[in-house]
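Deliverable D2.4 — example input (structure tokens):
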């Protein structure tokens, strides 16, 4: 099912009426759907500069109803040492990731220019407008990319009522 943009202008090519699609470029893995302060935030692997796989960014869109989406600025961009692969997003209610209580936290695989992959965090305390990098995490040893770990497909970090912390990680 295709339709017009919400601004009423007919796009040059048909666009999905309900499903999220980036404003331009290539879209791949969904990297996190999280509800924060009354708004759904959706993050996805994205190459905004072309119609095919390329330097991985994280696109970001928000919605109040999961049907009408507003695109936000790119959440994660490649840096001088590499690009951003798959991951997930959570709300850090207790501030345990170091960005502050209630921060939106992105956890992702950083694919270095040298072929090594490490797990990283980025956090936002302004509702997802800007993300600042955190200290790389030591969940997995650094390794040479072999196509087997395109990262944390799902994770949950929380603090139980008794203060015990837990982390659940899933992968293919």
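Example output (designed residues):
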């Amino acid at each position: 099912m295709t339709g017009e943009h919400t601004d009423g202008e007919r796009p040059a090519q048909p666009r999905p009426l309900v499903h999220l699609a980036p404003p331009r470029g290539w879209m791949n893995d969904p990297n996190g759907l999280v509800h924060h302060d009354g708004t759904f935030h959706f993050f996805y692997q994205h190459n905004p500069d072309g119609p095919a796989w390329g330097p991985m960014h994280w696109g970001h869109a928000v919605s109040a109803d999961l049907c009408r989406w507003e695109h936000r600025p790119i959440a994660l961009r490649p840096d001088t040492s590499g690009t951003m692969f798959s991951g997930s997003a959570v709300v850090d209610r207790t501030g345990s990731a170091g960005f502050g209580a209630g921060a939106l936290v992105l956890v992702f695989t950083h694919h270095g220019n040298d072929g090594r992959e490490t797990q990283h965090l980025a956090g936002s305390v302004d509702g997802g407008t800007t993300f600042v990098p955190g200290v790389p995490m030591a969940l997995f040893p650094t390794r040479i990319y072999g196509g087997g770990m395109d990262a944390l497909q799902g994770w949950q970090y929380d603090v139980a009522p008794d203060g015990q912390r837990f982390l659940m990680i899933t992968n293919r």
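The CA atoms of residues 80 and 113 lie 8 Å apart.
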